[in-house]
C-alpha cells in the first residue's frame, strides 16, 4: 500500500492529460505532439483508465489543503477522451469531495466543441481555455489539421457555441515568429471575440537536428549538443515589441476591464504577492503533470525521461511532488540564475522566466540566460513607470485603473521594430 501520509510543505497541482498528446490538430509549433514517442502502444490504447482517474481524483482531493480543489484537464486535446469520461469525472468528484468546493478547467482547441459539450461545461461550471492565436491569418499560420488546412473557422464556431451557452472561457494565444508582428491586431481581435482574460505563451523551442524520426527532437534546457532554434520560435525583440504593443493599448483603455496574465504577474510581483503563474515566480516545482498512464513529470514543459517522478499507480502524488528531486527542480529556477540576471534591475519582475527557455549564454559567456531576455528588458523598461503608478494606487487603496487617465497624458514611445 502506498504511503499517503507525507506532510506537504507547499501547495501543488497535477495537470491531467487524459489522452496524453493525442490531438485532432497538427500544429507546427506544438511541443507536446512528439511526446507520443515516449509511450509504447497504439494511440487508441493511450487513454486514461477509469481506475487511474479515480486514483487521480481522490489523491488530488485528499492532498489539497486549499479552500477550493482545482482540477486542470489538458492534452493534446482532452475532449477526445469523450463525454462519458468527463461525466464520470463529475461523479467521482462528488463521490469523494466531501462537500468541498471543486472547480474544473479544460484547455481545448475548440474545433470539436458542440452544443452538448458547451451545455455540459456550463452546467458543471467548467472554465474553458480556448487556444486561439489571433485573426485568421495569424491563427492558421501554424494551427492546422494533418492535411495542412487551417483550423480557424472551426475554432471560431466553437467559440460561438461557448458564448451561446454562456460558458465561462478565457483565451490562450501562442506567440510565434509570425503573429508576434501584429500585436495590436491580435489584441483587438481577442477583445472582439468576448475574451476578457487573455494569456500569451511564447514559443521557444530548442531541438536536436540530428534526431531520428522515431526519436524526440525537442531538447530540455541545459542540453545544448546539436541544438538549434526552430523557425517558428519568436524573436526576442519581436516578443518585446509584441508585449509593448498590447500593453500600450491596454494601459490607456482597458485596465480593469480586460486582463492580460503577463501584466497581472508583473503587478503582483511589484506588490510582493505570489504571481498567478510559475514562470513569473522566484521558484517553481509546484505544478506537475500526470500522463494518461499515471506517469508523473516535474512540469508540463519537462516531460522527458530524466524528469519523471514516478507513477501514480505506485506512488502518491504527495510523495512525488515533495520528493528531494522535485524540490531541487523548483529551487533551481532561482539558484541557477547567471550573474547577469542577479545583477539585473528587473529581476524581481522577471525571475528568469521559465527555466525551459534558458538556452543561451549571457554577454559574459555564462550559460543559463533566458532566450527572450532582450525582449523582456525592452518591455520592463517601457512599462515600469505605469506598473509603478498602479502599484502606488493599490498601496493607497485606490483603483489601479486610474492609470488610464495618467497614461493618456503621456506620449506613446516608439517600439524597437
Report what the structure shows.
The protein has 14 helices and 14 strands. With 417 residues, it is of the alpha/beta class. The strands form 4 sheets. A 6-stranded parallel β-sheet has the order 2-3-4-5-6-9. The chain has a 4-stranded mixed β-sheet with strand order 1-10-11-12. A two-stranded antiparallel ribbon has the order 7-8. The longest helix is centred in the C-terminal third of the chain and has 23 residues, at 373-395. The protein is globular.
> How does the major sheet shape up?
6 strands, parallel
Distance between the termini: 60 Å
Share in helix? 25-40%
Widest β-sheet, arrangement of strands = 2-3-4-5-6-9
Question: What is the number of strand segments?
Answer: 14
Task: Label the structural class.
Answer: alpha/beta
- Output mean pLDDT: 94
Features:
14 strands, alpha/beta, four-stranded mixed β-sheet, 417 residues, six-stranded parallel β-sheet, globular
Amino acid at each position: 500500500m502506498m504511503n499517503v501520509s507525507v506532510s506537504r510543505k507547499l501547495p501543488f497541482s497535477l495537470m491531467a492529460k487524459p489522452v496524453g498528446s493525442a490531438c485532432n490538430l497538427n500544429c507546427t509549433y506544438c511541443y507536446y505532439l512528439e511526446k507520443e514517442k515516449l509511450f509504447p502502444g497504439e494511440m487508441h490504447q493511450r487513454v486514461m483508465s477509469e481506475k487511474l482517474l479515480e486514483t487521480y481524483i481522490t489523491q488530488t482531493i485528499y492532498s489539497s489543503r486549499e479552500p477550493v480543489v482545482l482540477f486542470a484537464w489538458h492534452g493534446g486535446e482532452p475532449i477526445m477522451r469523450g463525454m462519458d469520461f468527463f461525466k464520470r469525472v463529475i461523479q467521482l468528484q462528488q463521490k469523494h469531495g466531501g462537500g468541498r468546493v471543486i472547480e474544473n478547467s479544460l484547455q481545448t482547441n475548440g474545433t470539436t466543441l458542440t452544443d452538448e459539450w458547451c451545455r455540459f461545461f456550463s452546467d458543471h461550471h467548467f472554465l474553458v481555455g480556448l487556444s486561439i492565436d489571433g485573426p485568421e491569418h495569424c491563427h492558421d499560420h501554424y494551427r492546422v489539421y494533418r492535411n495542412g488546412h487551417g483550423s480557424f473557422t472551426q475554432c471560431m464556431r466553437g467559440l460561438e457555441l461557448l458564448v451561446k451557452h454562456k460558458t465561462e472561457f478565457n483565451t490562450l494565444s501562442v506567440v510565434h515568429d509570425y503573429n508576434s508582428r501584429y500585436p495590436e491586431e491580435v489584441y483587438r481581435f481577442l477583445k472582439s471575440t468576448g475574451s476578457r482574460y487573455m494569456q500569451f505563451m511564447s514559443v521557444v523551442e530548442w531541438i536536436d537536428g540530428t534526431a531520428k524520426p522515431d526519436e524526440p527532437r525537442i531538447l530540455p534546457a541545459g542540453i545544448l549538443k546539436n541544438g538549434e532554434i526552430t523557425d517558428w520560435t519568436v524573436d526576442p525583440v519581436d516578443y518585446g515589441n509584441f508585449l509593448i504593443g498590447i500593453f500600450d493599448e491596454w494601459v490607456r483603455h482597458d485596465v480593469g476591464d480586460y486582463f492580460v496574465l503577463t501584466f497581472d504577474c508583473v503587478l503582483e510581483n511589484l506588490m510582493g504577492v505570489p504571481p498567478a503563474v510559475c514562470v513569473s515566480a522566484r521558484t517553481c516545482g509546484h505544478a506537475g503533470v500526470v500522463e494518461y498512464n499515471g506517469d508523473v513529470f516535474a512540469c508540463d514543459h519537462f516531460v522527458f525521461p530524466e524528469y519523471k517522478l514516478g507513477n501514480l499507480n505506485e506512488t502518491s502524488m504527495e510523495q512525488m511532488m515533495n520528493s528531494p528531486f522535485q524540490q531541487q527542480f523548483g529551487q533551481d529556477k532561482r539558484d541557477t540564475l547567471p550573474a547577469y540576471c542577479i545583477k539585473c534591475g528587473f529581476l524581481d519582475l522577471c525571475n528568469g522566466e521559465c527555466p525551459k527557455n534558458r538556452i543561451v549564454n549571457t554577454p559574459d559567456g555564462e550559460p543559463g540566460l533566458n532566450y527572450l531576455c532582450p525582449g523582456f528588458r525592452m518591455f520592463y523598461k517601457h512599462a515600469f513607470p505605469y506598473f509603478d503608478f498602479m502599484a502606488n494606487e493599490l498601496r493607497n487603496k485606490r483603483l489601479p485603473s486610474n492609470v488610464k487617465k495618467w497614461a493618456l497624458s503621456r506620449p506613446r514611445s516608439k517600439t524597437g521594430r
